[in-house]
């Protein structure tokens, strides 16, 4: 009988953190998007029509995520500026303190 009750429960969408690769509920991760101009933004409502990536909002993942080379690969933007990424993650670090 447990099988039928588990099928009735609505499952939450899962996504993978691009840093640690662990899966988590979409609501537990932070979605980051990149504009065509190379500006990184937080997409808190997951509605922006841009390439997005998810990360855990904890100190270890955010600290590892501050390298621009990771985001160049994730967003497929070879010219993503190091300074732009650094500024974004400095602001993000302030949020998690």
Output the radius of gyration: 16 Å
Please state the average pLDDT score: 83
Distance between the termini: 45 Å
The helix-strand sequence is HEEEEEHHH
* Largest sheet, strands/sense/barrel: 3 strands, antiparallel
Using brief descriptors, characterize the structure shown:
5 strands, 97 residues
Report on the structure:
With 97 residues, this protein is an alpha+beta fold. It has helices at residues 2-8, 59-64, 68-75, 82-96, and strands at residues 14-16, 23-25, 29-34, 40-42, 52-56. Strands 4-3-5 form a 3-stranded antiparallel β-sheet, covered by helices on one side. Strand 3 (29-34) and strand 4 (40-42) form a beta hairpin. The protein is globular and about 45 Å long.
How would you sum up this structure in a few lines?
The protein is α+β, with helices and mostly antiparallel strands.
List the helices and strands and how they pair.
Layout: H1 2-8, E1 14-16, E2 23-25, E3 29-34, E4 40-42, E5 52-56, H2 59-64, H3 68-75, H4 82-96
Antiparallel strand pairs: 1-2, 3-4, 3-5
């Amino acid at each position: 009988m447990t099988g039928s009750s588990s099928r009735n429960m609505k499952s939450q969408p899962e996504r993978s953190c691009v840093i640690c690769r662990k899966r988590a509920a979409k609501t537990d991760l932070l979605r980051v998007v990149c504009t065509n101009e190379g500006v990184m933004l937080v997409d808190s409502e997951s509605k922006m029509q841009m390439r997005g990536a998810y990360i855990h909002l904890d100190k270890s993942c955010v600290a590892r995520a501050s390298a621009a080379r990771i985001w160049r690969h994730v967003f497929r933007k070879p010219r993503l500026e190091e300074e732009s990424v650094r500024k974004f993650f400095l602001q993000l670090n302030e949020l998690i303190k």
